[in-house]
Design a protein that fits this description.
Oligomer: single chain
Strand order of the largest sheet: 7-8-10-9-13-17-14-15
CATH architecture of the largest domain: 3-Layer(aba) Sandwich
Distance between the termini: 32 Å
Strand content: 15-25%
CATH superfamily of the largest domain: Zn peptidases
Number of domains: 2
CATH topology of the largest domain: Aminopeptidase
CATH class of the largest domain: Alpha Beta
Number of helices: 14
Helix content: 25-40%
Shape: elongated
Length: 476
Amino acid sequence: MDVRLASGPAESTSADTIVVGGFDGESVSSATLQVLLDSGEAKLKLGALGLTHVDGRRFLLAGLGAREQFDAEAARVAAAGAAKRARELGARALCWEAPPGSDERIAAALVEGTILASYRFDRYRTQEDDEADGGLESLTICADGDYGAALARAQVIADAVNSARLLQDTPGNDMTPTDLADRARAVAGEHEGLEVQVEGRKELVERGMGAFAAVAQGTAQEPALITLRYRGPDASGPVLGFVGKAVTFDSGGISLKPGSGMEEMKFDMSGGAAVIEAVGAIAALQLPVEIVAVVGATENLPSDRAVKPGDIVRTMSGKTVEINNTDAEGRLVLADCLAHAISEGAERLIDLATLTGAIIVALGSTYAGLMSNDDEWATAVEAASAATGELVWRMPLHPEYKKLVRGSYADLNNAPERGKAGSITAAEFLAAFAGDTPWVHLDIAGTAWNLGRAYAEKGGSGFGVRLLVELASANR
């Protein structure tokens, strides 16, 4: 989509559809749109839309809700609703008149909401439907400020989110660990200062990654340890370690999942998708940071070679783990990936993983769970969350939870007593591998797909991409 900034009135652009926002309880600048309000045909609550035509062009009146509650997230929601309606109307060129009092954050959010709402996954459709043809080709933001750089940044980030969603939505037969590694190679090839290394089963064993290798041994698909290294111009601040779980299909292994809903386990690579695309966006923006990104990609399948409950494996860190449940495989992959990121020089760690169903019970799809061993680093991640609308909620770690992950026959067990603090004990397991390195764990199982927001209602959400870019932008 072509995104541009204009300083004049919206009517002076070539857009076929113009969007004007209005705050609840206030009048609007356009007399024609005010008629819609006065007649009751339009409302100004957030997400409401009214339509009229003036001189052969469409005008959409977009409700922005209460002025005092209007923020960047509300702007994304309003923009998404307008983009969907414009598409239904056959619009090709959309123009948003920036609401009065807008700053560059609001203008950027209008871009993000529009691009995110324009995402479609139609790779496998053989027949065109009513929405398959066309779509928005250009977006103009009419505003008085010098927001060009902010709009360009927003476009890069929103495109990266949609790229992550494409990876997520692709089924497991076409999104194997090798396919994901190929995407990482492609991203690295597009950007200066970004390098990639991909290692397979043999290298996992040679590195002593016994936990990751154990998960991968049940599938004929080659696993992929993907390491992306980025050093931006004039890089400063601590080296950031981004770690993503990328189980491209999770059957549960020998501890087989119930059949109902198992098709959604193609989304178990969502953390890895977010990490790859976020690093690509960071490189495209040439942010002055240094990043080591590690993605552990594998399938988790039952076979005559699959790891069994009761098996004991040795991790890269030297710690041993008894595997009580093969469906608690994500933490095994992440354990070795965290150790690898530290060995590659990461000084601040953040991992993203669709790790536990328990986090969905606790937080639904509104928040991702955050657990951390470092208050200052956790606060930085929470600030990035607040700035992007990718919400996180901090949950506790505690020595009593730590006791639950002690092994009976090994240092640790991967599946403590069922029903007790499932998300927290998973994080306590990971904390053993982060050690003294400041670390944040984000359990995104409830937010990675079917988010339910206007700009990402169904399918992959790309959750975490915007947060990671914001975190890198603030790293000093």
